[in-house]
What does this fold into?
Amino acid sequence: MTRRTLIETKILHVERPFVLESGKKLDSIDIAYETYGELSKDRDNVILIEHALSGDAHAAFYHEGERKPGWWDNMIGPGKAFDTERYFVVCSNILGGCRGTTGPSSINKATARPYGLDFPSVNIRDITDAQRLLLSHLGIEKILCVAGGSMGGMQALQFVCDYPENTGSFICIASALKHSAQQIAFNEVGRRAIMADPRWNGGNYYGDVPPKGGLSVARMIGHITYLSEEMLQKRFGREKKMPGNKNIFRPSFEVEHYLDYQGISFVRRFDANSYLYITNAMDDFDLVASLASRQRSPRDEGRTRGTGIKKMDHVKGLVITFSSDWLYPPSQGRDIAKFFRSLDAGVSYTEIDSDHGHDSFLTDVKTQSELVEGFLKSLMA
It folds into this structure.
């Protein structure tokens, strides 16, 4: 039996105000994080991993007593794409989340109750600035690479644009510079499903039964967009699990039971309000517009970061898309590469042939690993 590497999630308590892009502030924040590998003597081997909507800080290895490893364990570890014998890998739960980092389910010290909808809105830049605090706590000034897929790709792009002098490169997988109308529409239907659940109670469900039905439906909707039609047909077709079921409105097709399972398992680990806040941040993300028109926000006072779009000729990037991804289609990846090339960044783009849809970045690792390994080794050459 293969020996499992155990890891624990740590919590950084930041006991000072954190000012958001909106000007509102949180009196203090917690940041949940994990690290893998060893920091080099010159502190030049750091890779920051960004997670997607439903992810968390637990990106690799195992927690004590758990059967499943971290969400990107097939990419992070000894000898894998993000080789922990070579790199020091950092991953944190995002601001607004529900897996250890401060979010709407956290206790508001002013009221001694969970924030609920009193939690201020956050955007992708708020999320990456919280990560910058974590890196500072770890004594890290510069990172070799920031990498992520889906919403994690958005964070990677935001991070490298906000801290280009501190970020050598980025890897953006199955993501976008901004959401299309269709992408916003899918997220909105999920949000409406949650808010239509009577148990949501205007976001004040803590201490009571949460809106499991609404959140489950939101997850089911989202999960359909993560998979391709070809994969669903090949895996489930029109097979029935309970062909003799006389109740026509109970799940009978295999694909229905699969979606039911995905919804039920999701509500056991995720907070409905976090789902609302995070999908809102994703929909509001528009990297090019925000960089072109950026005005200094209240928290920028005393910083050297300027306004507008700057050349990034010292930055290297790798953009990866998947042929069957209809949620974040290859055209959006090509737009990312085109934009960063216009800033003189050295960016390569690859479309991987896969039938797994958007979830390919989590499941189809062979070609993806080869690309990532080659890219990272080129940085260390």
